[in-house]
Design goal:
Structural class: alpha+beta
Shape: elongated
Number of strands: 7
Helix content: 10-25%
Radius of gyration: 23 Å
Order of helices and strands: HEEEEEEHE
Distance between the termini: 53 Å
Length: 159
């Protein structure tokens, strides 16, 4: 009788230990890679549109949470027949080793009406990604009015 209880107790302990070990691994795997759509976002006057997907991995929930990598992909559409171009500009705020939160901008231009332009880029130690869509005359970079005016749409914010 004592042997049966001991074996039953060991089996229960083994099942509990297995469940405890498997739970963090499953939770970690779920938080390691998350993919979600973003957009569609339109420019003022609906002259340009952008939409796509975001994949983040390695989220670190330290004092300043950040994702180890964030991959943004999508398409930008020029919806005007004239000489203007559609822009999608991303403001990527990242965490430095010193704990600061500077940002970089990444812009994609499409001047081909009716033909979407695909793009993909990756950021490291990403805290936040915001997007802005503009339509303006063809230029090498977006205007100050495009970058500074209007509102930014939050694509990703580490929690």
């Amino acid at each position: 009788m004592t042997i049966v209880r001991t074996v039953a107790g060991l089996a229960a302990a083994a099942l509990t230990a297995t469940a405890l070990l498997a739970a963090p691994a499953a939770a970690g795997a779920a938080s390691q890679k998350a993919s979600s759509p973003w957009g569609p976002y339109d420019s003022a006057g609906h002259r340009a549109r952008a939409a796509g997907s975001l994949t983040v991995s390695g989220e670190d929930h330290a004092d300043i949470p950040a994702a180890a990598t964030a991959r943004v992909s999508g398409k930008v559409h020029d919806l005007t027949r004239g000489s203007s171009c559609g822009w999608v500009i991303f403001r990527v705020t990242y965490r430095t080793s010193g704990g600061n939160l500077p940002f970089k901008q990444h812009g994609v231009r499409n001047c081909s009406y009716g033909t979407p332009k695909s793009f993909t880029f990756t950021g490291r130690n990403v805290y936040e990604i915001e997007a802005k869509i503009c339509s303006e005359a063809k230029a090498a970079k977006p205007s100050l009015n495009c970058v500074s005016g209007g509102t930014w749409k939050v694509v990703y914010l580490s929690k």
